[in-house]
Amino acid sequence: MPKEPIDPAGIAWSRVSPKYITVRLIGWAAATLVGTAVLSVPLVLTLSGIWPAFPLWLAWLLPALELAVALWRGALIPRQTRAIGYAERDDDLLIRGGIFFQRVMVVPYGRMQYVDVAVGPLERAFGLASIKLHTASPATIAALPGLPEAEAARLREQLSARGQARLAGL
């Protein structure tokens, strides 16, 4: 991947699992179905004559716009997922993400309070897990989704050990 303008120089990024694309697409499809169904209610009520005062053009426009926006979001999911990465350095963990609005977060090991590994039912079905890093600042929670379960467990132990070592050195 070409170097992005906000990436620190000389970093070899580790990527999340490609299976995470499927997990996100399944969530996207479910949300799209629910959103389209809800926004189709005026259309169904108008066409059935129950709500004749509602403008027919607006009744068609609502689900059409929902589908157009959903298709755009769905098309971006694979690229957004491939943009997520992390890198372990001697003193901190870097987490990157984003296509249009890129972000690189630096989490110093000594500032980590605890590392949380979470697995939802869909992630479990694909053998994935998510890590959340809670820092000394209550407002800062760094998330790293879509990791293989073994990598998430390894990273949890590694980050916890490094955090304890840095904290002991203070």
UniProtKB/TrEMBL annotation:
Residues 82-159 form the YdbS-like PH domain. The keyword Transmembrane applies. The chain crosses the membrane at residues 25-51, 57-76. Keywords: Membrane, Transmembrane, Transmembrane helix. This is PH domain-containing protein. It comes from Arthrobacter hankyongi.
